[in-house]
Amino acid sequence: MPTKIAADQGRYVSRLTRDTVAMILAGGRGSRLYELTDWRAKPGVYFGGKLRIIDFPLSNCINSGVRRIGVATQYKAHSLIRHLVHGWTGFRSSGREFVEILPASQRTGEGWYLGTADAVFQNLDIIRTHHPRFVLILSGDHVYKMDYGTFLAFHAEKEADMTVCCIEVPLEEAAGQFGVMTVDENGRVIEFNEKPEHPASIPGKEGFCLASMGNYIFNTEFLYEQVIRDADTPGSDHDFGKDIIPSIIDKYQVFAYPFRDPETGEQAYWRDVGTLDAYWEANMELVSIVPQLDLYDKDWPILTEQLQSPPAKFVFDHADRRGEAIDSMVSAGCIISGASIKKSLIFSNCKIHSYSRIVDSLILPECEILDGCTIIGAIIDRGCVIPEGTEIGVNHDDDRARGFRVTKGGHTLVTPGMLEQPLHHTR
Questions:
Q1: Number of structural domains, the chain?
Q2: Do residue 203 and residue 56 come from a single domain?
């Protein structure tokens, strides 16, 4: 959510954002999403009916006034790159406003990106051409709305060399999953542990730790020094969390920026949709009456590629054959033909045929659900054609026997490959 600030503070922040280049690290596979990322990178996964995960950090940049953006891609990036080209490359080519795609291209050697720090190191020559004062480094695979202008103002006011954006996370969720920080009374980082199995609690707030969101601000020259030094360090994993942050906290000014709702001061909305259950839950939150993530916020729009699709259509109104959707989101281009949708998200250009029933499910774009199907608590990947009379999520043993993946939380993932429909579905 954007922060309300005075005019003079706004001018101060706008100067900071104009002097910033953002690097979005979007090369990750997201292996805990299993077959959902077999043919696409995690930042390219669909979300919220018509979006992709990468749209959130990109929209945050644009809404914050950071309009010089590079997106570093690597793992199976065709789907992601196509989305960026179609939806995000329409900025003026003036040097002050752009979204550039930075694929791993062996710019400094013969290897791919070896870690988060190496992804920046391999693109230093590109960053240098823009002469920024600050470099904003962002994870490309989280769902949240954030004003990076206030993040930059905090960094400048603290006279920091580096600032890490952080959230408060329950210990059981953080264990083995997040970089965990310990800070002093001024917010300076005095200890950093990368994905500890037993994270330490925040003093005075037992049961919670201070976790890194993977978003960082560096003074540009300081960033150059650190990633070059890291590149020359034998045995380094070339990662900000594992290598760079632990090596600098004793000597330099490294601060933690708490990501909070500017209106309430409470923990702001942020989701790591890195597992199938977390992905399902974050999407399903959107169909509640007042979700924490407001996609209808005109002051902070989440931008994306705008497909030219007709409105969603609902047809038939018989007692046993009614096209309807209750507590659901149905995207453009969909035809709900005598089917019942309840507490579900139907993504763009899907066709749901007569007598089918969809409950608590995510139906990704361009799926077709034929007559008489029952789908409960499922994730149906893009382009699936579900045969007539199929039951999914009704009996998990049956789901497993057909080669579908059933999660710990009891949600069933179905992909075209599992249905023996065309593989290499890269969209």
A1: 2
A2: yes
**Measured distance CA(186)–CA(103) in Å, rounded:** 39
Check residue 108 and give its pLDDT: 59
- Within 8 A by CB and 6+ apart from 124, the residues are 224, 227, 228
Structural domain for 336, as ranges: 313-419
Task: Please give the C-alpha separations between residue 334 and each of 5, 57, 155, 191, 322, in angstroms, as whole numbers.
Answer: 41, 27, 45, 51, 15
Helix (H) or strand (E) holding 375: strand 374-376
d(CA 217, CA 66): 13
Beta bridge pairs of residue 216: 137, 164
Residue indicated by tokens 């954006």: 165
CA distances from 356 to 132, 322, 360, 388 (A): 55, 10, 14, 9
Cα separation, 17 vs 136, in Å, equals 10
CA torsion angle 18 23 26 27 (round to 10): 160
Q: What is the distance between the alpha carbons of residues 227 and 268, in angstroms, rounded to a whole number?
A: 30
**CATH number reported for the structural domain that contains residue 401 in this entry:** 2.160.10.10
Q: SS3 for 183?
A: strand
Report mean pLDDT in 10-residue bins for the chain, 427 residues: 57 93 94 95 96 98 97 93 91 78 75 91 95 97 97 97 96 90 93 91 89 97 98 96 96 96 91 96 97 96 92 96 98 98 98 98 98 98 98 98 98 97 66
Domain presence at residue 352: yes
Q: What is the pLDDT of residue 89?
A: 82
Query: Do 173 and 322 sit in the same domain of this protein?
Result: no
The distance of Cα 146 from the centroid of its chain, to the nearest Å, equals 12
Q: Say how far apart CA 417 and CA 427 lie, in whole Å.
A: 14
Q: Phi first, then psi: what are they for 78, rounded to 5°?
A: -60, -50
Cα Dmax for the chain: 73
- The four Cα atoms 186, 187, 188, 194 give a dihedral, to 10 degrees, of 160
Q: CB-hemisphere CA count at 13 Å for 315?
A: 10
